[in-house]
Amino acid sequence: MLGALTEVTMNLVAMKVFFCGIILFFSFADINAQQKLTITAKVNKQVELMSIVARLAEYKEYVNNQFKTYSGDVDRYFGKHKNHELIEFAKKIRQSNGIGFERITAMAAHLNPNLTPKVPFTETVPNKSWRKKTAEEFFKLKDQ
């Protein structure tokens, strides 16, 4: 019986050593991984430009002056385009199609970096609110 008890004790000690080794391994592996982690901040051009259009069209959710330096820079640089046909159209479709909030970013998500559509517009792409005809008209006006 003493031999069996000693064998069980040895197995328990071996298991403890094994698990401690595993814990130590992952602890050091985690520290090493955290040290190599780098974060690169980027601005999505499509989202930024669609947000500026919404701001110029005075969509209340996009006229947030919490970051005064940024909003002042945007207004100074783009403010001269406030009467552009695209901005007027954006005002119109806000009322007629309910464009705003996430629908602006839905359009941005369907654009390539060169601001062309990733896929053809349909009645549900980029969003049911946009509709094909509205999305196509919006993009005709952006180039004028």
Listing every helix as H and every strand as E from the N terminus to the C terminus, the arrangement reads HHHHHH
Number of helices: 6
Spans where pLDDT lies below 50 across 5 or more residues:
1-5
β-strand amount: under 5%
Binned, the helix content reads 55-70%
Distance between the termini: 93 Å
Biggest pleated-sheet summary: none
Indicate the mean pLDDT.
Answer: 84
Structural class: mainly alpha
What are the salient characteristics of this protein?
144 residues, mainly alpha, 2 domains, disordered N terminus
Summed up, what is this model?
The protein is mostly helical.
Can you put this structure into words, describing what you see?
The protein has helices spanning 2-36, 45-56, 68-78, 85-97, 102-109, 132-142. The protein is mainly alpha-helical. Helix 2 (45-56) packs antiparallel against helix 5 (102-109) and helix 4 runs antiparallel to helix 6. Residues 1-5 have low confidence and may be disordered.
